[in-house]
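Long-time lurker, first post. I've been practising inverse folding by hand and with some scripts of my own, and I keep getting stuck on stretches where the structure tokens seem ambiguous. Below is the full token string for one chain I'm working on. Before anyone asks, I'm not after the true native sequence, just a reasonable design that respects the backbone. If someone could post their per-position residues I'd love to compare against what I wrote down in my notebook.
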């Protein structure tokens, strides 16, 4: 390392477009579930690169896959067939409701693809005039025009209007509201089974089934955005599994590439049949290195023993959080499943994040009052204990 912490921060502040407010530390390396800054301070990672680092840092199988495939073939574009793409597609299809996969490079892109495919489906064969979307309050689907148009937060949308027309918002977990919004013109309803950015809000037991029924009645597709909650995060491979409802399209991204960028839009034959060569594409998508790593991630995370350990750590985490809630009144509500938790607090969450960093913990937030925890899925009981101790100390200070 040639540069010091202050120099790096100064350079970034001068040259990088300031779309993020970052704390004053520079991360330098990671090991297991810990990251280290340039000064050598160690942090327990409870945000995992925003639900990306499912296997933590420095996983030997991930590193081996990168090295092996990078030596063989790094990039050829989608003009040619490659083995890693074919094998990853097979894995995703064989373990889901879907028959086809479209690969892209991020969550937002997986949403854009889903919206485009739904529009194409809505005007093919016997179908015509279906080009509208229904999304929900509290939703987050990304930052490009289509994804942004279906994202709830006014502050994200307003500066960039006019957005994609034909998007209607219904209230999350309110089937009456959804029934009003979904019409014969709706080509798709898009929903996160567990909202991430919106504050870790779980779909109620019958909500997704109700949406499925509405979509079937009115002839619309159902899109699940599992970019954050999918791929083992909830202790099930797919977040929608416990709801026993299947979508027509599902979007994946964050953890799929083990830290390398990838997105995937999964769909049924009914949707796939309406898409032809030339309808959509991407130069970088399904990069052979990323697809090799993604196979490692998928095999590991989808293993029943691995998923059981996510549920077990999740149960420990919840019981620790409930203990903290009981001891310190500042905790209003605890929401989540598996290793995806939102802790609503009667305090400024930024203050909690800052104190957490001082104590050697990186946490996230979802809005102004929800602390968000998305640790690597490989955390162990001792790490849950470390979190409980340190968060307990912070809540105690808040209460005082
Ligand atoms: C992060 C996220 C996205 C956007 O993904 P990017 O990779 O940041 O483009 C979309 N949907 C959900 C639910 C997300 O959490």
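-- Answer (accepted) --
I ran through it position by position. Result:
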């Amino acid at each position: 390392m040639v540069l010091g912490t202050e120099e790096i921060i100064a350079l970034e502040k001068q040259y990088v477009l300031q779309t993020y407010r970052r704390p004053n530390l520079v991360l330098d390396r990671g090991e297991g579930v810990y990251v280290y800054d340039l000064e050598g301070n160690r942090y327990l990672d409870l945000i995992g690169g925003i639900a990306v680092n499912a296997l933590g840092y420095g996983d030997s199988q991930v590193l081996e896959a990168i090295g092996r495939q990078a030596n063989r073939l790094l990039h050829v574009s989608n003009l040619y067939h490659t083995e890693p793409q074919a094998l990853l597609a097979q894995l995703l299809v064989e373990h889901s409701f879907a028959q086809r996969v479209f690969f892209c490079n991020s969550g937002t892109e997986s949403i854009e693809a889903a919206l485009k495919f739904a529009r194409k489906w809505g005007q093919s064969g016997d179908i015509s005039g279906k080009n509208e979307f229904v999304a929900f309050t509290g939703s987050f689907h990304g930052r490009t025009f289509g994804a942004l148009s279906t994202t709830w937060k006014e502050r994200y949308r307003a500066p960039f209007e006019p957005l994609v027309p034909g998007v209607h918002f219904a209230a999350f977990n309110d089937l009456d509201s959804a029934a009003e919004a979904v019409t014969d013109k709706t080509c798709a309803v898009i929903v996160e089974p567990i909202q991430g950015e919106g504050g870790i809000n779980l779909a109620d037991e019958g909500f997704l089934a109700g949406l499925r029924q509405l979509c079937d009645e009115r002839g619309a597709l159902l899109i699940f955005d599992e970019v954050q909650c999918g791929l083992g995060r909830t202790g099930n491979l797919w977040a929608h599994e416990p709801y026993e409802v299947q979508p027509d399209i599902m979007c994946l991204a964050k953890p799929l590439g083990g830290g390398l960028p990838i997105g995937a839009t999964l769909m049924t034959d009914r949707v796939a049949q309406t898409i032809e060569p030339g309808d959509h594409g991407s130069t970088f998508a399904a990069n052979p290195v990323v697809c090799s790593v993604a196979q490692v991630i998928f095999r590991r995370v989808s293993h029943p023993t691995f998923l059981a350990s996510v549920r077990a750590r999740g149960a420990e985490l919840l019981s620790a959080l409930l203990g903290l809630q009981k001891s310190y009144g500042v905790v209003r509500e605890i929401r989540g499943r598996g290793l995806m938790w939102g802790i609503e607090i009667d305090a400024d969450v930024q203050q909690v994040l800052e104190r957490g960093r001082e104590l050697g913990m990186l946490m996230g937030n979802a809005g102004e009052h929800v602390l968000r925890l998305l640790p690597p899925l490989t955390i162990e009981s001792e790490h849950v204990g470390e979190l409980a101790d340190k968060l307990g100390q912070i809540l105690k200070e808040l209460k005082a």
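A couple of notes from the structure itself: The pocket of pyridoxal-5'-phosphate is lined by residues 106-108, 111, 140-142, 192, 196-197, 225, 227-228, 253 (CB under 6 Å). DSSP finds 14 helices and 17 strands in the chain. Happy to go over any region you disagree with.
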